[in-house]
Amino acid sequence: MRVLGIDPGLTRCGVGIVDVAPTRAAVLVHVSVITTPPELALEERLLRIAAGMEALLDEHRPDSVAVERVFAQHNVRTVMGTAQVSGIALLAAARRSLPVGLHTPTEVKAAITGYGQADKKQVGTMVAKVLRLDEVPRPADAADALALAICHAWRVPLGSGAAPANGDAAGGLTPAQRAWRAAEQGAARRTAAPRLVR
């Protein structure tokens, strides 16, 4: 399964493509950041981003697209730019009849690290580990795009276009979440172990 992950942004738009095997092993195909200068007219910036996305879609032909779900922030201007770029990604995928998954940052962090409140450094480190890279992809937008692609692939049954209600086929958990849960259960067992009374 090949997934294009998009971390939408008007100044920096992270794009990452991964191939995921039935074993859930992931391999890096492509990662980059589409940039546009702030002084350029908005419509020109959107046009450049659209051209970059469409070129990647046509060259690498992913099976699905994963986009970060836009959420409210204090900076309305930033949210607007992110939403506009997200719309471009959705349109480009729809033109090619590709299924799209929208994932919140918390969902992505939980899928990749097993912890929904992980910071960017932790996410980047796990992305590098999962993809067996020598270093963390930079800038952070690139690592975030790869994390989105991996998250989507792990949450969607391979060969399927739509995400199930409860995550992947193995109990609704991603590999990172299963490892996290196993560690928690091990800690709970150690805490609950009976103590000898002398």
TrEMBL record:
InterPro entries: RNaseH-like_sf, RNaseH_sf, X-over_junc_endoDNase_Mg_BS, X-over_junc_endoDNase_RuvC. Its EC number is 3.1.21.10. Its cofactor is Mg(2+). Keywords: Cytoplasm, DNA damage, DNA recombination, DNA repair, DNA-binding, Endonuclease, Hydrolase, Magnesium, Metal-binding, Nuclease. The active site is at residues 7, 68, 141. It comes from the Bacteria. Pfam families: RuvC. Mg(2+) 1 binds at residues 7, 141. Mg(2+) 2 binds at residue 68. It is found in: Cytoplasm. Binds 2 Mg(2+) ion per subunit. NCBIfam families: PRK00039.2-1, ruvC. The RuvA-RuvB-RuvC complex processes Holliday junction (HJ) DNA during genetic recombination and DNA repair. Endonuclease that resolves HJ intermediates. Cleaves cruciform DNA by making single-stranded nicks across the HJ at symmetrical positions within the homologous arms, yielding a 5'-phosphate and a 3'-hydroxyl group; requires a central core of homology in the junction. The consensus cleavage sequence is 5'-(A/T)TT(C/G)-3'. Cleavage occurs on the 3'-side of the TT dinucleotide at the point of strand exchange. This is Crossover junction endodeoxyribonuclease RuvC. The gene is ruvC.
